[in-house]
Amino acid sequence: MQNFILLALMGLIAQLVDGSLGMAYGVTSTTLLLSLGITPALASASVHIAEVGTTFASGVSHWKFGNVDWVKVGWMAVPGGIGAFFGAAVLTSVSAEAAAPLVAIFLFCLGAYILVRFSFRRRERPVVVKPIARRFLAPLGFGAGFLDAAGGGGWGPISTPTLLSSGRMEPRKVVGTVDTSEFVVASAASVGFLLALSFTEVPWNIVGALLAGGVVAAPVAAWVVRVLPARILGTAVGGIILLTNARTFMSAVGIEGIAADLVYAAIAAVWLAALVHAVLVNRRAAAT
């Protein structure tokens, strides 16, 4: 029961982050499951099956608050679902020993991106709402969906900043659209995992706990997206992902012993500096 509650809390925190930032549910949850010794394929499968429920709840909540652009959902979700299905097939065909360092490297890079993106970003350029070409949305959806399933995360970290950088969508619409379209991506990835894995292999207790926590958090996150200081939360999440994946990442690239300890300490120091920077910038912005 204690483990269930802890996993549910993990799902709740991950969904609060994802629903507020438009990214990081898969990265956060997969990172923590890998740290518990779950294999990459089972970790990603558990997260995506749980996401079928959490993304549905999140999508409904964002829709209620008017955060969804349904035209863009369609053009991203379908290619994203196709990419996620193939990504699941790729991950389950690779041995756990081979997949672990690859997934850790991918998650580490995403963590670094999230940290830089939220701590050191400049102000977003003014939004001028315009259509975004379908020939741009479809490949974006396919690539993000594939990496999301194969790497245990990536739909939000790839889709959200790409759409934000276009300057053609309101930030809340970006978050709501990405979170809502992720329902199709999670469903397709789950089908791919269930076809490749034995039904009994899936740790359903983990799925249930992540789902319970995520469903509770979804409506709260959809509301708080308008008021939460995203810079601080994104910086905190990026650092956690970096530190959690750092050991496996360094082992994969051949950094060991004292050198690994020094790199680990440097990462922690950079994260602390980035967090302080984010807090100070947020305070200055609030004061102006």
TrEMBL record:
| UniProt KW Cell membrane keyword | yes
Record's Gene Ontology CC terms?
A: plasma membrane
What's one Pfam family the UniProt record gives for this protein?
TauE
How does the protein associate with the membrane? Multi-pass membrane protein
Superkingdom of origin organism = Bacteria
Q: Where would you find this protein in the cell?
A: Cell membrane; Membrane
Transmembrane feature ranges: 32-52, 73-92, 98-116, 206-225, 232-250, 262-281
Coiled-coil stretches, from where to where?
A: none
Q: Which UniProt keywords apply?
A: Cell membrane, Membrane, Transmembrane, Transmembrane helix
Task: Give the chief site where it resides.
Answer: membrane
State the InterPro entries in the record.
TM_pro_TauE-like (IPR002781), TSUP/Inactive_protease-like (IPR051598)
Q: Does the keyword Transferase apply?
A: no
Protein family membership: Belongs to the 4-toluene sulfonate uptake permease (TSUP) (TC 2.A.102) family.
Would you tell me the protein name for this molecule?
A: Probable membrane transporter protein
